[in-house]
Amino acid sequence: xxKLTARIRFMLGALALALVVAVAAPAGAQQRNPDNSVNPxxxxxxxxxxxxxxxxxxxxxxxxxxxxxxxxxxxxxEWRHFHEVTLRWIGAIAILGILALLVLFYLTRxxxxxxxxxxxxxxxxxxxxxxxxxWMTASCFVVLAITGLxxxxxxxxxxxxxGPEAFTAWSQWAKYAHNYLSFPFTLGVVLxxxxxxxxxxxxxxxxxxxKEGGGIVGHKHPPAYRFNAGQKMIYWIVVLGGGxxxxxxxxxxxxFYGTNIADMQVAQAIHGIVxxxxxxxxxxxxYIGTIGMEGAFEAMWDGTVDVNWAKEHHSLWVEEEAAKGxxxxxxxxxxxxxx
Length: 339
Ligand code: HEM
Prior knowledge:
The protein has about 350 residues and is mostly helical. The chain has helices at about 1-30, 40-55, 75-110, 130-195, 205-210, 230-255, 260-290, 295-300, 305-315, 315-325; strands at about 55-60, 70, 120-125, 305. The chain has a two-stranded antiparallel ribbon with strand order 1-2. The chain has a two-stranded antiparallel sheet with strand order 3-4. Helix 3 runs parallel beside helix 7, helix 4 packs across helix 7 and helix 9 packs across helix 10 (about 315-325). Bound molecules: protoporphyrin IX containing FE (HEM). Protoporphyrin IX containing FE binds near residues 145, 178, 250 and 271.
């Protein structure tokens, strides 16, 4: 009986071996051309077949992080296309589009002047603390934007210009700056949220302000409180956009803490899209705060604005300050702080 079992096992083994040889022989033959020379593309053809059949290339590896054993997978290829193509288009259209609009706007409208001229009297608009928070957040934002844009556009635009060595060194420093400046930036966004929320809740005055085209599109000066509808939009873009880039940015900075590969890809997509739109919006904000409107920059620079500027752009705020008795000129002709 045991002899019979052993024979059957031997025959089955031999049959299996014959089958393996029969299947393997044509595969081996594929590695060679008909003239028996070696076909150099045979292995890539097999790789392609593997993709089609298995959708991924993965295997076994000895490092503890088993995710590293997957070399390619379909969602990874889709993400790469998003990162290398789609995101660049979104960024280019948003940023170049807004720049073109601003140039066009400046050429047709020019700087919005203080219509009644400067009164020579000033009113305090932002405290030293408010300005400190604004400039800390703004300078972090500029560095985050430049170093972030390097991740999206550096390879096609900068690498060919400065060469691989300089690009590597710069990108490494840019990455450190992006990581570390994220912390003061996040603090700034939280402080901006708390500091100005009371003046940024939308109300009926904003609807009227928008209908009249604000103080910049039209030539009228619709009434507004401390922040008009345009400034409120910037406020919410900073708070919500800043919150979104911070949340997704930290998910990217600390990978796989409660996230898997798919979550990381979603986080990167949201981070990239929001960040690029955020840059476009801030270009508009910088324009109005500098060359777009006379008398606006000084509000954030030395904290004061001309009273005529305030009356034209924030008439209801001036009335509020007057009602609080803050407009009575002290000796020397300077107004009291509106804090
Ligand atoms: C708390 C704030 C932020 C954190 C924690 C953060 C973190 C990160 C991280 C970890 C990455 C991935 C880097 C890599 O792939 O090596 C990244 C990419 C990027 N960040 Fe930020 N970031 C923050 C704010 C910003 C801001 C404010 C901007 C722009 C104004 C920005 C723009 C970008 C861009 C454009 C990318 C590249 C996206 C891509 O091409 O996939 N980030 N960020």
